[in-house]
Specification:
Layout: E1 2-6, E2 27-28, E3 31-32, H1 33-41, E4 49-54, H2 59-66, E5 72-75, H3 87-98, E6 105-109, E7 112-114, H4 118-126, E8 132-138, H5 142-145, E9 149-153, E10 159-164, E11 173-181, H6 187-194, H7 203-209, E12 215-219, E13 224-226, H8 230-243
Length: about 260
C-alpha cells in the first residue's frame, strides 16, 4: 500500500500567515503539522511509500522537510489558486508520476488532525473485499454537517449517498478527507477526470464512484480537526500544547 498526502493548496483563508509558508508545515506545539499525520501513517507496516503532493511555490520547503523523513515530494507545477490542479487532479498527478496505477492507495488531506488509528482503518478495510473506503465522523449537529459532506449508509456500512455541503442533511455523519482506494478502483480516478468532472473536492469523486463501485464508511471516534481558518489553527495548537505539557496561548504564533 502507498500513501498520498494532499498538500498542494494555498490556504488563502490563513493569509498573511500562509503567504510565505505552507499550511501543512505550520508548527503545532513545536512540530510541523504534517509530522502528526506522518506518525499515524507510520503505524501501518504495509505502507511502504509515502508521497506528498504540493505546489511549485512551496516545493522546496516540503523537500527540506521530507529529506529526513523518507518521504517522496511531488511538485505539481502550479503557482496560484488560478492554475491549481485540484485535489483529485493532484491524486492522479501522483499516480501517474510515481506509477501507482496498480497499487492500493490511502489518501489523506495534509491539514487533517485526528485520533483514530490508521492501522485499524486499513485492517477494517481489508475485510471489505474489493472496495474503497472513507473515514466518517458523527459531528452531532445537522448545522455542522452543512459545512462538510453528508453521508448515509446501508445496513452493511456501504455508502448509499454522499452529498457535498448539503442544504438539508438528514444525518450527522460526515466524511473526512481520509480515503482508501482499492487497486482495482484506482483507474477510475483517471476516468472521472477524463469525463470532464470537477477536479477539486475529493468527495465529488466518492459521490461519482457510488453507483459504480462499493465504497464503505469507517466510523471513527476521538478528535478530528480539519484546519481551515485561524480559529481552528489556534484550537489545534492549544490542544496539542496541552497534550505536550506546554502552556496554551491566546493567539497563534510561529514561535
Amino acid at each position: 500500500m502507498k500513501a498520498i498526502i494532499l498538500a498542494a493548496g494555498y490556504a488563502t483563508r490563513l493569509y498573511p500567515l500562509t503567504e510565505t509558508r505552507a499550511k501543512p508545515l505550520l508548527p503545532l506545539a513545536g512540530r510541523p503539522m504534517l509530522d502528526y499525520l506522518l506518525d499515524r501513517i507510520r503505524e501501518v507496516g504495509e505502507i511502504d511509500e509515502v508521497h506528498v503532493v504540493t505546489n511549485h511555490k512551496f516545493a522546496e520547503p516540503f523537500a527540506d522537510w521530507a529529506s529526513s523523513r523518507d518521504v517522496v515530494v511531488h511538485d505539481d507545477g502550479t503557482t496560484s489558486e488560478d492554475d491549481r490542479l485540484g485535489a483529485i487532479g493532484d491524486i492522479q498527478f501522483v499516480i501517474a508520476s510515481a506509477g501507482l496505477e496498480h497499487e492500493d492507495l490511502i489518501v489523506i488531506a495534509g491539514d487533517n488532525l485526528f485520533d483514530f488509528s490508521v492501522a485499524e482503518y486499513v485492517s477494517w478495510w481489508r475485510g471489505k473485499g474489493d472496495a474503497s473506503a472513507v473515514v466518517l465522523y458523527d459531528v452531532g449537529s445537522l448545522e455542522l454537517v452543512r459545512k462538510y459532506s453528508s453521508v448515509e449508509l446501508d445496513e452493511s456500512g456501504r455508502l448509499r449517498s454522499f452529498v457535498e455541503k448539503p442544504e438539508s442533511p438528514t444525518s450527522t455523519l460526515v466524511a473526512t478527507a481520509s480515503y482508501i482506494y482499492h487497486r482495482a478502483h484506482v483507474p477510475f480516478i483517471r476516468r472521472y477526470l477524463d469525463e470532464g468532472n470537477a477536479p477539486d473536492q475529493p468527495g465529488r469523486l466518492v459521490a461519482w464512484l457510488l453507483p459504480r463501485l462499493p465504497v464503505y464508511g469507517f466510523a471513527a471516534s476521538g478528535d478530528w480537526r480539519d484546519i481551515g481558518d485561524a480559529g481552528q489553527l489556534l484550537e489545534a495548537d492549544n490542544r496539542l500544547r496541552e497534550l505536550a505539557g506546554l502552556p496554551t496561548r491566546n493567539s497563534y504564533s510561529l514561535d
